[in-house]
Amino acid sequence: MTELRLACIQMRSGVDVAANIEAASALIRIAADQGAQLIATPEMTSLVDIRPGLARPKIVDEATDPALAAFRALAGQLQVWLLIGSLAVTLDTETRLANRSFLIAPNGDVHARYDKIHMFDVEVGDGQNYRESKSYAPGPAAVLAQTPLGHVGMTICYDLRFAALYRALALAGAQIISCPAAFTETTGKAHWHTLVRARAIETGSFLIAPAQTGQHEDGRRTYGHSLIVSPWGDILAEAAEDKPAVITAKIDLSDVDKARRRIPSLNAGSADYAVKTLR
Fold it and tell me: Is-above-0.70 flag for pTM?
């Protein structure tokens, strides 16, 4: 298989986990009805709540997470590959949490997991002070998932600013790289399109970047503009409006090899990250 249809789910997740599961599921069903075989949701699909102390009581371990259970069942029902951009889950040996992306197979099994490596510890000038490392532990390794649809490299949001991670995934064989995000409105306006297109061009990979958008219940505002970008840097689909949406694009994985032959930059140098390959 070289041709397939990708979909991005753009959301405005709030503080109610059950409501977010319902909203995401409805959009996923629309994407499946449109023929998407790989459907990706944004970072923090099931909960966006940066108010001090209010999110933590709603976060549980992976085994009992209601969102993961619901999305596993939905993937099996719809017979699609479902990339849940990320969920916050507790860790067994850490007081901190994991910001974890899940790739779910059409049989409902979790095929691959990736914990966000780069923590968003910044002050961007929007009135918020972001210190992700206070609550979350960084992931230990990059992850490449081999699937019948193609090889999928997994990243999350702030990872987008670390080009070496994307290069490592491409050198390991990634044809599609996911970047589910909740970019701030400030940084999104300045950098989102440039960074997503740059990572696609540098790696000769398809980039699938589903995003959170708009004014959230907790007061945070995210940029949206979910994107599907070709290995040549062309925007194949974009959610331009500031509201939840579904975008899809039909892609041909042979375009990955074509782009890499035209610009063989991956042939020089090496990777700075160890990559765990999951088959």
Answer: yes
Q: Which of 157, 179, 185, 238 is catalytic?
A: 157
**Which of the following is catalytic: 3, 62, 94, 116?**
116
- The per-residue pLDDT for range 37-68, each reduced to its tens digit, is 999 999 999 999 988 889 999 999 999 999 99
Q: Mark whether 116 is an active-site residue.
A: yes
Categorise residue 269: left if φ over 0, alpha if ψ from -120 to 50, beta otherwise.
left
* Count of structural domains, the chain: 1
Domain that holds residue 203: 3-278
Terminal CA-to-CA distance of the chain, rounded, Å? 17
Tell me, what CATH number does 249's domain have? 3.60.110.10
Is 43 considered catalytic here? yes
